[in-house]
Design goal:
Number of helices: 3
Largest sheet: none
Number of strands: 0
Structural class: mainly alpha
Distance between the termini: 49 Å
Length: about 120
Amino acid sequence: MNSVPYLVAGWIFLVGCYGLATSRHLVHAVGCLTVCQSSTYVLLLAVGYRDGATAPVFSDVPPGARPLVDPVVQALALTDVVVGATVTALLLALVIQVAKRHGTVDPDELFELRG
């Protein structure tokens, strides 16, 4: 088993977390969260990969004649993309509302939002 995709997924996640921790702009923070979530795409595709396997489509090849890629992992990756796009759109809409109400997108200057 090759561990390179798992290391790449971990590296992408850490880069996103570093950007999130050092962010001084809410739009940048949303972008860093998106980068963190993109590491899950790489992780899911690494889990579902099989060396020498083909797509799980119906054909005239008898069952068990060739290895197949797991279609559930591909469906989860596609669902992850859709959910990620939705969450990103929602967060950007919230950033726009914060900018309209408070006049800034710097998290340190948002005193009204502190508890």
